[in-house]
Amino acid sequence: MKIALAQLRVIPGHPDENTKKMLEMIREAKSNSAHLIIFPEMSIPGYLLGDTWEQTAFIKDCEECGQDIIEASKDMAIIFGNVAVDWNKKNTDGRPRKFNALFTAYHGKLVAPDNMPYPFVIKTLMPNYREFDDTRHFYSLKQLAEEKNVNVNDLISPVRLDINGKMYSIGGFLCEDGWSDNYNYAPIDFLKEKGVDFFVNISSSPYTIGKNKKRSMIFSKEAKDNGAPLIYVNNTGIQNNGKTIYTFDGSSTVYSSNGYPVVRMEKYVEGINYVELEEINNMPEAKWQSKPEIANIFNSLKYGVQSFLNDIHMNKVVIGVSGGIDSAVAAALYTHILGAENVLLVNMPSVFNSETTKGLAHKLAENLGCHYMIMPIQESVDHTIKQLETIPVTSMKDNSVQNLKVSSFVAENIQARDRSARILAGIAAAFGGGFTCNANKAETTVGYSTLYGDQAGFLCALADLWKFQVYDLARYMNTEVYGREVIPQATIDIVPSAELSSAQNVDEGKGDPIKYPYHDYLFRSFVERWEKATPADIIRWYRDGMLEEKLGCEKGIVKKYFPTHKDFIEDLERWWKQFTGMAVAKRIQAPPIIAVSRRAYGFDHREAQNGVYYTRQYRRIKEELLK
Hints:
Structural class: alpha/beta
Number of helices: 22
Distance between the termini: 75 Å
Helix content: 25-40%
């Protein structure tokens, strides 16, 4: 049997375009004498659609598109993912019952699994964590089994296809059904009991750091333990749930019954790969050169930004460059994607910006060959402050008059807003593009940004990268992407600083209040640990002398920054207050971000504006340490 793996670039919410491309791939596979073509999970509608799943007209359109695929199976078998509906039954939300389903079509009609009550395979395990929200919209096979008062393993069953006079038993299952470690049963084990010639897992699985390695370990083991080849087909493209944008890298893979990956399709590339079923176990293990994690991050960001720009039909960007590392990395990334002729870098100095950083911004633009302009802000900032302090505020109750006083802190925010809301927004409109937000994840975590100022922009490409990863990305782009120093080494070496006051003079070594070698790791524990850390955990680890080990930061750094218990506690409370307070409101209003980590802001990290809270355990240990 010749099998075609169709690594489709799925366009979420556009079943017409997906179906058109699927039919093209079907024709190509037929011309190459394939007997079976396999498409990813939810290949017709897309997967991350939000509450589009509640639109009846959209669901019916997906059904019609699915019928087009079924009709195309007259002389070749097709496995594909789509939404399935039982219009006579209700879901738990009272709407028509929907399933996340795997369809098998042959000879122009559906081929039903042996024991399923419907002519399709129903997803059993419903992910309801991170970016996934399956239980909100779909009815699982487990729920169906309970409703029918039967065991779920009685319903899980293979599909049987007669191809060229030979009967094949295919164990089809969907995405999460293969990730059964944290569930009380594994659908693939039930399939094995029914007798399977090979397994097919169709997925819509976004890229995040370390995920491919874990998946390969799981599927290798499942293929080996069950003694049958396993074919994994994933999609490419980007999908989102509003705030958070995910890249889908494909990486479709064939595993032999020995557990070896023997075929792996290229990441982020739509296409078809062919494999002869009977040859899989004779194929050598496919070896791939291991890449540093920062290379995978770069590829995900590049693909995500490029795809997002294409989706919103934007081909020009404006980037505010300060001479610092974040804006330099953003400039290098967008220039690589769009070309220097479509990127305009803008330096907006005030009296607090040093000649050093102004020179580095100019050098960056020169190295990249972008458009460049300098737009000083001091005059407009002074004018704004003067207006605020001299224009009277009149009480309409008693006609009393007062004047506002602009503090140094407010003056800092006025600078940031002047740069973004006035200058970058105006330049972007005139240039015919959008302007970027260059925030990193540490700043986003504690709201170290100005609303409608440096937090503004159409996209924040770096907001899922900690500061140390931004530096890694800078070095990687210099050495591997450009092959020369486009981001000046001095930008990498200089102290990070917003340069909004004399207290942040980089020439005097003064910078941001965030001590990145420590705070990157502290903040990461708030967000990315599966069991998220709170001050109670942090202070307990600190008391027990294991904080650096738990956080993964440099040994000895805590004592270096915080000589006393009081210093340590004040710092912890300062940032926890920010993280759970104003920073939440800022994150809600922040631009969309591209997810690469194990937990990204947006829908992946679901928040409520509850304010700061310290547990009893924290307060007890704090009292103990301060005695």
